[in-house]
């Protein structure tokens, strides 16, 4: 796996980890600091947006692989 591929993989994995940490932060709060909560929500929204974009790319890559496999399996 190339460094670029590893970075992308870690990005999604890291994003899931970060979202989990944000969720845990909210769960641990007895009284949520509104300003800090807003920062966490904005961070989570940005992470979700980036993850959706990355997942679209991954989905397209899978579709391309699927097309390659389907074409190769057709007898000529």
What features would you describe in this structure?
- This protein is mostly helical and 76 residues long.
- The protein has one domain (12-73).
- 87% of the residues lie in helices and 0% in strands.
- It has two helices and no strands.
- Helix 1 (3-28) packs antiparallel against helix 2 (34-73).
- The longest helix is centred in the last third of the chain and has 40 residues, at 34-73.
- The chain is rod-shaped, with a radius of gyration of 19 Å.
- The chain starts with a helix and ends with a helix.
Radius of gyration: 19 Å
What helical percentage do the residues reach? over 70%
Low-confidence stretches: none
Give the N-to-C terminal Cα separation. Answer: 33 Å
Contiguous helical run count: 2
Q: What is the residue-averaged pLDDT?
A: 85
| Structural class determined from secondary elements | mainly alpha
Overall number of structural domains: 1
Name the helix and strand elements from N-terminus to C-terminus, one letter apiece.
HH
The share of residues in extended strands comes to under 5%
Number of strands: 0
**Biggest sheet, open or closed, and with what strands and sense?**
none
Q: Report the principal-axis shape.
A: rod-shaped
């Amino acid at each position: 796996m190339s460094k670029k591929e590893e970075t992308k993989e870690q990005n999604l994995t890291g994003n899931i980890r970060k979202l989990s940490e944000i969720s845990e932060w909210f769960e641990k709060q007895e009284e949520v600091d509104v300003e800090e909560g807003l920062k966490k929500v904005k961070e989570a929204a940005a992470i979700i947006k980036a993850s959706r974009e990355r997942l679209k790319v991954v989905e397209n890559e899978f579709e391309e692989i699927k097309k390659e496999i389907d074409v190769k399996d057709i007898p000529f």
